[in-house]
Amino acid sequence: MSSKHLICIVGPTAVGKTALSLAFAKAYKTEILSCDSRQLFKEMSIGTAVPTEVELQVARHHFIQNRSIHDDYSVGDFERDAMDLLKRLFDKHDVAIMVGGSTLYEKAVTHGLDYFPDVDPAILDQLESDLKNHGLSYLLKELRQKDLLTFNEIDQDNSRRVLRALSIIRSSGQPYSSFKTGVASTREFTIYKVGLEAPREELYDRINRRVDVMLQNGLIKEVQELLPHKELRAMKTVGYQEVFPFLEGTYDIEEAIRLIKRNSRRFAKRQLTWYRKDPDINWFDYRTSHTQIVRQVHKSIMENQ
């Protein structure tokens, strides 16, 4: 077992991952990697709940607002950049911290990504057109016919995931699932996963209150400034996609708020469904003191050296 450790903090949105990551960073005097696919973008601050200026001063953070929504940045790019960064960090530290709720980004670092063939841009354009003209249900029907395994496993509310799977299928003529090996990449460091969980009603209340704070902090104004770019992939994000129709007069602000809260709760449910499948996660109640969690994790790491 390597003497270098990546402590990976996961859990549903609004459960308190950022605060816990800061406790670990202070305890180990180390740096934090964000694995949030939206906190990457400098144009999206309020709706993605990026760490505050005070929080950013506690420890050095990476992959926070270092890209533009106009950049073509994939999960594969993130895996490459994160692995390069970890190599440098482990030259200085025995421990690094990774935190975030983007499940695929977390998996890219902890397990690696499967190889998929290149996709003809024309196929992507056609899929985007099919989605716009026929809707997601139309694409899901095609996915079910061509790759039942992926259809049963995929997040059927996530249009980007569905488009990705179908782009591979149409390009290669093979099921998307046939390219998934399930074999984890070898890492030169040991991974310790820490999960935060909360009773459902308490989590939903935290989510609702977080949305209220975002609105108080100027979420509507932030989304309004992004309205000209609403077709970009980054804008297909909870907290943004619900506000655009309000700004265009489709429904009122109360409906926009209701949809943000509902979709945020649904997102949290999908996150938990994903994480519950991972037997390597060590779960803690979100009310457990950070000192206790840090102490328990450190003890476990030392015992397994």
From TrEMBL:
Matching SUPFAM superfamilies: P-loop containing nucleoside triphosphate hydrolases
Catalysis performed (reactions): adenosine(37) in tRNA + dimethylallyl diphosphate = N(6)-dimethylallyladenosine(37) in tRNA + diphosphate
Pfam families in the cross-refs: IPPT
EC number: 2.5.1.75
Enzyme kind, highest EC tier: transferase
Residues annotated to bind ATP: G11, P12, T13, A14, V15, G16, K17, T18
Function: Catalyzes the transfer of a dimethylallyl group onto the adenine at position 37 in tRNAs that read codons beginning with uridine, leading to the formation of N6-(dimethylallyl)adenosine (i(6)A).
Protein name from the UniProt record: tRNA dimethylallyltransferase
Species per Swiss-Prot/TrEMBL record: Nonlabens ponticola
